[in-house]
Write a structure and sequence with these properties.
118 residues; Arc Repressor Mutant, subunit A; three-stranded antiparallel beta sheet
Length: 118
């Protein structure tokens, strides 16, 4: 008797980052931890892709000595519609360009602005 073949979809880096956020709702996660799961050179992109999935992810930065610590957290229960996501993307692009902000900072500010306008 032969065993049936099992096929598993490989977990993408984006899915791995999304799973990490979902496993720790409301908890701040250091960028170094995200890099271990999402890839050393692409974890910021994977975090942005989670936002495109409709996940609400906030960002903060703080100094620890000479190091700048970037932390992110998933805020469950906030649904982002396609219309809101498109407006947030436009706001983030403008803020990034005009405000000399990092992409993550601009996306967080755009999300906060969208929440306040509801």
């Amino acid at each position: 008797m032969t065993q049936p073949e099992l096929h598993f979809e490989p977990l993408t880096f984006r899915d791995a980052v999304a799973d990490l956020f979902r496993s720790r709702p409301g908890a701040w996660i250091d960028g170094l931890s995200l890099a271990q799961v999402g890839g050393a050179y692409a974890w910021r992109t994977r975090t942005s892709e989670c936002r495109q999935l409709g996940m609400t992810i906030e960002n903060r930065q703080r100094k620890e000595g000479r190091r700048t610590v970037s932390e992110y957290r998933y805020v469950p229960g906030v649904t982002v519609t396609d219309d809101i996501a498109e407006r947030m993307e436009e706001r983030a692009a403008i803020m990034e360009y005009d405000g000399n902000l990092t992409r993550a900072q601009a996306e967080t500010l755009a999300h906060q602005t969208a929440k306040e306008s509801r």
